[in-house]
Specification:
The structure is a homodimer.
Chain A lengths: L2 E4 L3 E6 L4 E7 L1 H9 L6 E8 L4 H9 L2 E9 L6 E6 L6 E7 L19 E4 L4 H10 L5 E5 L2 H6 L1 H8 L4 E5 H8 L4 H10 L4 E5 L5 E5 L2 E5 L13 H16 L4 H18 L13 H15 L9
Parallel strand pairs in A: 1-4, 1-8, 2-6, 4-5, 8-9, 9-10, 10-11
Antiparallel strand pairs in A: 2-3, 6-7, 11-12, 12-13
Chain lengths: ~300, ~300
């Protein structure tokens, strides 16, 4: 029972107040797969790159137990490139350039072997393509879907059709407000769950993440980091840690979904501590467990009844 | 060993998307005292009003176990009035008018009886006045201080002198960034603690609150409310619940400070559910305990070690 990840692979050029990298490994499918690979594997990746995609990145993914049978390499095409610059406060970024290249005509073809997988993570790509992935799956049982403001604004009808078919939608707070035109996040969450997904996760960046499901609201803090080197990929990494942990444990109870949110948050907190995917390349399980426990220290308190 | 609260008393005119009130009971000392009164009392209030201050508000405070010996009533003067309008999303408000009136020349005189109190809560007023309060106290042992951008921008030197003498500073996230010129909140918190206060609380509105002290960072969620009727006084109410609980329990360990943050957050969550001080006028202890427990459901998760 596999875990399929579909999304983008990219070469990112990122500038932050601290440093600058060119043609670093990026893309939603990359971050999701790497994060998920710490919990469960092999992770089945479907995506597209050009013939310029560095061999070392292919090897890096393979070494992390990511099955690349579904990776299309388009001869004579270039890989999707994105360039961005983060401002001083790291919450605002400018996109400097987007060159779709091979990604422009991406048609996700799910290899026969992957079609039987029950867990599916749809990285942030065109909702029409996300739908096309689901159409090829034989019996998907747990589908996690990420999206962004670009698709909410430009492809809302397709997105609304798609999210009826997913179990978990992951979006950020401004996207939740945009999707519902409702400023109150708790009301917006209820409205989004009425659109289809049983489970909704709202990411709030430096303020953590919230999980909404029947009878449960769970609020996870963000890990307190004094220095964030590169926020790129944090959301995708969250999704990867979340679905990777659930795929490993096969337990969809509220208690386990809460843990999955914390594992997702833990992986995201590692991600932003280094440039690009560097922090996700050779983590140890002890490091991940330790980070999980730190989330507990950060958010737990015990009860002492007052009386008067 | 008393609990002294010094701050403003006001008549507020508030408009939200849901309703509108005129001359409702307001002011930082009011909210702090009412919230604290659920844990500990009598709460010793020092503040100033005009002779137009409604008798029913005096009675309301007295009925809530608030000692008004330090309340100055200036004959022939009017009470401080504030008018504000909240926008659709309730995170933005316009101040429509501010009439300082009796509050303009407020000189906090601490009655002899109150000077012996060990716990002091300095509501958000001019830091010079907050200092004058401390100068009158014989042996203050636990001082909690609130402030705002207005004083950070206009009276920074006085504020910096003051906060060297307080145990807990409570500010919101934008104020923390303003005070330190540092966008990273965790770094800003460290810088502020280096300015004096051993304990720092950063309020983040709909994203909860964070507690910083030696070796401890604690992140409390906000209570998920679908409807916020009136955010006025939420920050003061937080401070009141926080210090009231600590005054009652006399336990300043990190574990108990975490609980105090949750009691503060609980009280603030009640505050915003009704207009003005209405929600704080007759709460029951069961309601408060129940809200505390809901915070636990909201933020706790248990551990399940992964292995691979």
């Amino acid at each position: 029972m596999g875990l399929l990840v579909v999304g983008s692979l990219a070469l990112d050029s990122v500038e932050t107040p601290f440093d600058k990298v060119d043609d670093a490994l990026g893309g939603s499918a990359t971050y999701i797969s790497l994060a998920a690979s710490y919990f469960s594997g092999p992770v089945e990746l479907v995506g597209v790159v050009g013939s310029d995609f560095p061999k070392k990145y292919v090897e890096l993914l393979q070494q992390n137990n990511i099955d690349l049978e579904g990776l299309q390499i388009i001869e004579g095409e270039k890989t999707f490139r994105w360039g961005g610059k983060y401002h001083y406060d790291l919450n605002v970024r400018d996109t400097l350039f987007t060159e779709l290249n091979a990604f422009q005509n991406f048609n996700p073809i799910i290899p026969e072997r992957f079609q039987k997988s029950k867990y599916v993570c749809l990285g942030n790509i065109d909702p029409v393509l996300q739908m096309r992935v689901l159409d090829q799956m034989r019996d998907p049982q747990f589908v996690v879907c990420d999206t962004m403001n670009f698709w909410i604004e430009g492809m809302k009808d397709d997105l609304l059709k798609l999210i009826k078919r997913v179990n978990v939608l992951i979006i950020n707070d401004s996207e939740a407000r945009l999707l519902t035109d409702e400023p109150n996040l708790i009301k917006a969450a209820k409205m989004i769950r009425n659109l289809g997904p049983d489970i909704l996760i709202i990411k709030k960046g430096e303020h953590g993440a919230m999980l909404f499901m029947d009878g449960t609201i769970f609020s996870a803090p963000a890990y307190p980091l004094e220095t964030i080197f590169d926020p790129t990929g944090a959301g995708d990494t969250f999704a990867g840690g979340f679905i990777g942990y659930l795929h490993k444990t096969r337990d969809l109870t509220p208690d386990n979904l809460k843990r999955a949110v914390i594992y997702g948050s833990s992986m995201a907190s590692f991600c932003v501590e280094k440039f690009s995917t560097q922090a996700l390349e050779k983590l140890s399980y002890l490091q991940i467990q330790d980070r999980f426990r730190k989330f507990k220290d950060l958010s737990h308190f015990d009860q002492l009844e007052i009386d008067k």
